[in-house]
Here is the input.
Amino acid sequence: MSLLLEAKNYRDNFRKELANLNITKNSVEELRIKYLGKKGILNRLFQGFGSLQPEERKEFGQIVNSFKNDLNVQFEVLQNKLSEQEVSKDFFDYSLPGKKPETGYMHPISQTMREISKIFREMGFDIEYGPEVETDYYNFQALNFPDNHPARDMQDTFFINNDILLRTHTSPIQVRTMQSQKPPIRILAPGRVFRNEAISARSHCIFHQIEGLYIDENVTFSELKTTLDIFAKRYFGSKVKLRFRPSYFPFTEPSAEVDITCFICNGKGCNVCKKTGWLEILGCGMVDPNVLEASGIDSEKYSGYAFGMGPDRITMLKYGITDIRMFFEGDIRFLQQFK
Ligand code: DAH
Here is the structure.
């Protein structure tokens, strides 16, 4: 093959190789050495110039020179493409929003307790806490439970020994507060309580209560009714009506249980309220003088009311939760629904 034809073939081949090139640092360098290296094609063509016939030299010179220019231009283009690749590999857009780390959620019962606490705080109640491991004295005796009261039975109470137990209600916080503060006392005491009960969809051995207590001169039952009415309307909705049913608790006299009109069916009767139109939400009453005296408060001078409610049941009603055990299983799929 004549050198002239060879030069034309190389020129066409280079174009083909370029079209099929997978552009990487290595492949571009390999191609550059092949064509522009010391022992590369271009140099070999130039070296052959002397062996050409004089009449061939002009055309050969034109072909090889334009091939050389083309090679230089094309390798510059390839270099640019390589540096672009390099930049895009390291490119980081600092204006992108950050990744948010997963955060925890407040437990639905904690949410309910906070919402309820907020309403009472706005009515002037302070928040108080008490120990979950209590003495028989605070849990029963000071609250006027007679010695043989069934709540003291092993069936209901987790006793640690004869004297120490897991509190069965938040009412002992009433006594602790009355011992440590002087009237007027206006407190709300949320907390966890424990009862030795079989665990089922409807009852658990761990649950929660919110205790309320107001002690001052001349506190009346109608103040209790008004306070609970205001609370219920703010928490459950302004249309809610209250019903007080006479009841019995050792630490209050008189005592009542309070129902609200069912907020699911508005009192018409549904499955949740068992067709009655009413939902029981709390127990309450006027603090028994025995309880005041046991805590060193003059029952001739002072009177007061107390109430206790169950935020577990209230949360279940609010969200239509049918199994109380869900609250204590820590299942993320359940808890995430209360974000
Ligand atoms: N401690 C009661 C219980 O566990 C609830 C309760 C009822 C609390 C009436 C009160 C009250 O303060 O006045 O069932």
